[in-house]
Amino acid sequence: MNILPTGKLPPDLLEKLLNKIPILDKNVIVGPGTGMDCSVIDYGDQYLVLKSDPISLTSENIGWYAVQINVNDIVTTGADPKWMLITLLLPEKGTTCQIVESITDQLILATKEYDITIIGGHTEVTNGIDRPIISATLIGTVDKDKLITPSGVKMGDTVFLTKEIAIETVSIISNDFPDKLSQHLTRLELKRAQSYLYEPGVSIYKEANLIRDGFGVTAMHDPTEGGLTAALWELSIASNKTVMVNLNKVPISELTDRICSLFSINPINSISSGSLLFTANPKNSTAIINLLEKNQIPVSEIGFVTGDGIGVNTIVQSTVISVPRPERDEITKIF
Questions:
Q1: What is this structure's pTM?
Q2: Domain stops at, among 107, 127, 146
Q3: Which of 87, 213, 276, 303 satisfies CB 3.0 to 4.6 Å to 159 for a cystine?
Q4: pLDDT single digits (tens) 131-144
């Protein structure tokens, strides 16, 4: 018997399971599939866009966190987030009324930021867990002519990445393992790492909204589990397009690099909410870069789309090689 490791299901197993799921309703425009983080339903004049995601790797600010992570995926479709359902599971030991109220306050604060209405869900104290776990479902709407999906990648597109990789990785590690990091970082460095949740921040709402209209954007993706590498593979599979990436152009801070090294984590394969991966017509590159930089959002051109077929490649010493698809997120090794 093969025991599965912590984290997402192995890609081959997940794809096997997804292929078994029938689509029985003709109003389903986008159903389950690799790289397809949101489902899309025909809703008359508009599409409903739906996303469900848990917060399970950290217990730090999970109410606020759950809203940001689900909003990220909704806005990559060009949609506006509207309504949220929340399931909150709390451990038998250590759960107090104050903890439940704190998480609820986080949810309310974060949803107000985006004018999202909490419309229901479920809350319980349950056995078998040692930390609070939230799973949220977020519903948004988008005009039919403005829907963006990962399948939209086109031949010749430029591949962009905002901010830097492994923002979420640093936030999780520094908040869950401060004692270990304090042996290697100054107090100021540790405090800065712990604030990565907010600065550079795990939200991509601002940049996704800025570029979704009129800039030739063909696909947007949020690099979550498996990091940038997994996200590139998911874009490739969803669109049946091959991507050439220049790994030397992938931005990473010196602090992030040090923290990942301390935990033997490869940052390009580690959870990276906060970076927006997107493709766009190269004729719009200058306009996109100028717009984002004007709004204090760093952006890098990290590659381009080379043709039909599935694959993520890079060049090492003048030789084209395949970038291995990660089986699981690097951060799961430390839990």
A1: 0.92
A2: 146
A3: 303
A4: 899 999 999 999 99
